[in-house]
Amino acid sequence: MSKITFILNGKTVSVEGNPGVRLLDVLRNEFKLTGIKEGCGEGECGACAVLLDHKIVNSCSVVLANVDGHEITTIEGLKETSRYQVIRDSFGHAGAVQCGFCTPGMVIATESLLYDNPTPTEEDIKIGMSGNLCRCTGYQSIIEAVKKASEDGDGLW
Amino acid sequence: MKTVNKSFPSVDGKGIMMGRVAFTDDYALQNSLIVKILRSPHPYAKIKNIDASKALALAGVECVLTHKDFPRIPFTRAGQGYPEPSPHDKFILDEFVRYIGDEVAVVAATSNDICEEALSLIDVEYEVMDPVLNFEEAIDSSHILHPEPEIHEMFPIGFEPLRNIAASYHMHIGDVELSLKESDVVIQQSFYTQAQQHTALEPHTVNAQMDYQDRLVLYSSTQTPFHVRRILSQTLGIPLSKIRVIKPRVGGGFGGKQALHGEMFVSYITYKTKKPSKIVFTRKEVFESSYTRHPMRLDIKLGADKDGTLKAIDCYVLSDTGAYGEHALTVFMVAGSKVLPLYNKVDSVRFHGHVVYTNHTPAGAFRGYGAIQGNYALESAVDMLCRKLHMDPIEFRQKNMMKENETSPIFAIMGEGTEGTAMNMESCKLDYCVKRGKELINWDSIYPHKNVSREKIRSVGMAIAMQGSGIPYIDMGSAIIKLNDDGFYNLLIGATDIGQGSDTILAQIAAEELMTSLDKVIVYSSDTDLTPFDTGAYASSTTFISGNAVLKAAKKMKGLLIEEASKVLKCNVTETDFDGFTFKNTVNDEIINLRDLSNRLTYNEDQKQLVADSSYVGHKSPPPFMAGFIEILIDRETGEIEIENYVSVVDCGTPLNPKLAQGQVEGGIVQGLGMALYENVIISSKGKNITSDFLNYKVPTRMEIKKLVTEFAESYESSGPFGAKSVGEIGIDTPPAALANAIENALGVRMTELPMTPEKIIRALKAKEKRQ
Q: How far apart are the C-alpha atoms of B380 and B752, rounded to whole Å?
């Protein structure tokens, strides 16, 4: 047992526990953050994506010990930002949400991509979003949504 | 039209996007027992003995269940209308295990880790038996999967378990042998389709709790909440009135959730222990132990005259249902019934075959439901025939395919497990779809191919498809609309939104008829206590079946409102105008608005609750149609394929929400391309699924497909709500055949086995060179 301290959605939090547990389980079970979904548990689908110091990571593949002293942003934290509003509206407009299970991870991936590259090309978007699987949309609408977010959010990233 | 045929964002999208409590596991109680399943390491074995004493002794283990704990009641997990066309050939737990991943025992414990440890402490003694792993050798094999005497069919489906046959079927129109003999040109080919996994992003998930009335409340990630309730009651002996099934948001289904997977176990455990419990399948379990698409071999013969008149279609299908016969007959029949009528002018048709048991993961429902397999075979064969006839494949189709106001005798003969329903195609814009798709893909400038470089060839291919809109006289949907004070409505529907957006389009239908705005219709769906019955989300039924129920209920509500308003306005109902917000006495121009009327009915005068309800069962199943066109770049050295463009032109009647309809089509196209290109459940020679994670089972990511173009034909189906037909499955049907046709147009080789991987393409090229 050890005490791990990190910044979660802008607030400093501490967790006493096994440092080897998955960040995914800590966020869902301890902090009741239901925006993080477990789609595969093996780092392949991106449904559990969060931002670790503003880099996208799959929280199923990160152990608690690794976040000590770092900053974690989940969809629940991101949704308070004006960037989120832009992403939300562009996803809604493009019809990029079907079942929605992959969507919080997709939104995190969009934020991560636009943070690094506010004006991505279509190829950049395809590469930037390639770590997140969606089985519903065929991706076309998601690519459109990211493109639109990049255009509408001009200056925010 | 104010609300329908408009692309409103889905009513639930915003909340889901920000991660609000929405999906099944989000509702699990924190103190739920964790349920896990011990699964068979053998493809076929008899359990001689199970010793769970060590597991039971472990602190935190609540119970261990084996086949001895359950009454021996055969049932089917398939979520279908009752009596089901699937044989009752499964026991909740059995002394036989029939595939690697089949259920042996079930553990409930206070934590995941304890559960895992308990599983490892269960000693099982197996008598390993010889499996049937080649579906072409299943019939009359000496290894019989289902010798048990209790299993049975619910009505005649050609069930012969002692021959490893789960179902069989035969139909013919005319004399197919004679027609083939009289044809100028005949082609014959066998096609193989593989097992595909649904890979909905949300794994199969269920949790249960006892409520304060001592009733079992289940949250289930299901496509069929009402079938789940019925099957649980029948198999566990819990009165139906004691079970409530709630379907929260579902993270994709595609047919994989048209069945019970963990529901029996958590229900039994919670009902017995009175403690909440939950199960979440691991991704490996989803791959190994849920469902796949039925692999098939389709032997097809076509006969035509020199002038390109198709005269005969003869098709024998052998389908592999795996260990249990779930959806066995119906998927098989759809491979014919929703494919063959495309060519309705033939003299004769024969469609027959068998669905066999093997020691594979059970096959089940999967978007397309047989039609994608049948379409691949027929639409590939049509191109082969055209090649032999030296005829343009588009001209051939235009000459022979279904047209508006025509019919096919197959509709009356083939239903899903039973006889079908005769119908005329009141809406069929297939001719437009073909013409428009040809323009959009730039067919004339590419067909059959263009050499781009020494290695690369650009080519095009196409296929046409049809599906259905629910199952006539079986699928029933219903709706209740309730008026509230302040003048807004609740729409209660049994229909099951699994991400396709049915909550949104059903609310749009109600809003359109009631002439109100979408935000005035509050949808609540899929709760067996609170919403009326619906068969569920399958068979492309919701827009058409549930949509018609909603429309009828909304019409009734409108009548009730006008009746009440006319009392207030002191005029006849025929003298009362209503625009959705205001009622007007057309004689004296006196008005009352809806808000005032509803407040008055709630609190002030002549108080009453206005409720309108309705149900709908289809009397036909108007098919959506589409033409799919693919443009590829193929490397003749490596066999690698790049998808440059996929054009879909779809006739689904009025698209009630064009954006959501486009999402259905494009999602289907990409899933179909996955099946055409590389998705493949691979079973080793020992019966083990060696593609049980996303590393080894590749699903499309956004890198592979360069462009999707989706358009809708102007079409109106008078039997559908506001002219709509369904659109959930049609998108998946054309990619395999369109791609196979494009490959032949590029390289002159015919791919007869899915998926069409680069290795197979190179092998086919080498074989062709050898022949030459």
A: 8
